[in-house]
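Support reply, case 0932

Customer input (verbatim):
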Amino acid sequence: MADFIVEVEDAVKKFKETTALKQVSVQFERGGIHGIIGRNGSGKTVLFKCICGFMTLDSGSIWLDGKPVKPAVAQDIGIIIEEPGFIGALSGFKNLKLLASIQRKITDDEIRKTLSLVGLDPMSKKHVSKYSLGMRHRLGIAQAIMEKPQLLILDEPMNGLDKQGVLEMRQIFKALNREGITIILSSHYAEDIEALCETVCEMDNGVLTRLSP
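Our regenerated output:
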């Protein structure tokens, strides 16, 4: 019997005259890398925010690890949805240390190892305000993965990265998956989905369609 980490059933989310999610139903199996492809405005980000508990559905249900998702409740999820709000006057390390102090699950050394993993200098004093777009995105990925969550929700995780950066991130995500972390990611680009994902869905105008398997 399949072990699903995320189960979405008949999810509907409306914003005034717009229906962003239209009776969306999907299950994501634990331990896999799952992809959603679709254009901007298709509903991918709204679905991710609902899975993370940042938005509530108008109808339907979402279950995370067998329990109903509740608004604003801390879950064991690493998240990249839109650009993280880092403090520009602090270094990358100090930003991550500040975030890690909330749950106190990891050490300074583990933060430094995560920064190195994503290609950033853990000893750099450079302020985040001076980071390039690609560096900020790498820092966002570090923030999402540093506490080794059971589930990663990654909305367009390759944005702002050059070709080499994309290849490096793919290898990182594959390595995290081998460690048992389930990954659900979205992308505009079919090649990212094809390179990483075991299952693929397409989102278009609020409707989710399973493409494979």
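We compared this against your earlier run and they match. Two observations from our side: Residues 163-178 form the longest helix (16 residues). The helical segments are 44-51, 92-100, 108-117, 133-145, 163-178, 190-196. Please reopen the case if you see a mismatch on your end.
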